[in-house]
Design a protein that fits this description.
By secondary structure, the protein is α+β, with helices and mostly antiparallel strands. Helices cover 17% and strands 61% of the residues. Strands 1-2-3-4-5-6-7-8-9-10-11 form an 11-stranded mixed beta barrel. A hairpin with a 4-residue loop joins strand 6 and strand 7. It is globular, with a radius of gyration of 24 Å. It starts with a helix and ends with a strand. The model has no long low-confidence stretch (mean pLDDT 79).
């Protein structure tokens, strides 16, 4: 065997050995992450995961949420592909959750994709959710959600919604939102802040029989700060170019309008 061929085989053997070692490390990190479940959100909901299939490269997972009444709902099924020092995931909403959303929100979900990227080095996670649906008015709408785990272990959620007609009285247009969750203990997160903006929003209270609210270019901010003795300071801010509040009753109707 020539010297060049011997060197080439040696380098190939080292590369294969390193690749196998990296794959074992990646699988070990996945096992560590799965052992951290369940996660709790402000003691109101618990996120659980069940592993239904596993081999050297592929994991199949089901994520479920249990509420404060101990009612559990499967939310996402995931196919995890583990490569050396890199992980990808293809997910979809569970049929159970899709049926609940369609019924509760008066919508029809046509398409849903969830793509995620993980790195076991540095605990990097990015997940993007894209949903196409038709609302009460049979109008096609788009919803996108971005989920990011930050280096300081905080969680950042960003979402955009093209619009949403819940019924003939409640309508939303061009909604953007951002929320941040902060770790407060082992496997437990609390809500830290929420920011929402809406180009147009019409909301009917009590099916619009009593009060109808209209907002234009509205912004809302909610902030939570930890206080002493497990107390928390809450602050909210709201602004709107136009805020119209109307009471709709044939015998006694009135309305207020505030313009910035």
């Amino acid at each position: 065997m020539s010297k060049k061929r011997t060197i080439a085989l040696t380098i190939s053997a080292i590369a294969v050995a390193l690749g196998i070692g990296a794959q074992f490390y990646t699988n070990h990190k996945i096992d560590q992450v799965l052992k951290n479940f369940p996660y709790s959100l402000d003691n109101q909901a618990t996120l659980n995961v069940t592993q239904t299939a596993k081999n050297f490269f592929i994991r199949e997972l089901i994520f479920s949420v249990k509420d404060s009444d101990a009612k559990s709902t499967n939310v996402i099924s995931t196919k995890l592909t583990a490569l050396p020092f890199f992980i990808t995931a293809e997910s979809q909403l569970s049929d159970q959750l899709v049926r609940q959303l369609n019924k509760t929100l008066n919508i029809t979900i046509d398409k849903n994709t969830i793509n995620s990227k993980f790195s076991p080095v540095g605990d990097y996670l990015q997940s993007d959710i894209l949903t196409e649906f038709r609302d009460f008015a049979n109008k096609s709408q788009n919803l996108s959600i971005g989920l990011h785990f930050l280096k300081n272990k905080e969680v950042e959620l960003k979402t955009t919604l093209s619009g949403f007609n819940y019924d003939k009285d409640t309508k939303l247009e061009e909604i953007e939102g951002e929320a941040r969750l902060v770790p407060v203990g082992a496997n437990q997160y609390d809500l830290s802040s929420i920011d929402l903006t809406a180009k147009n929003a019409e909301v009917a209270l009590l099916n619009g029989e009593n009060t109808h609210v209209y907002m234009k270019n509205a912004t809302y901010h909610f902030d939570v700060k930890s206080g002493e003795a497990d107390k928390r300071d809450l602050s909210t801010k709201f602004s709107s170019d136009i805020l119209r509040i109307a009471r709709r009753k044939p015998s006694n109707s009135w309305w207020f309008e505030f313009i910035d």
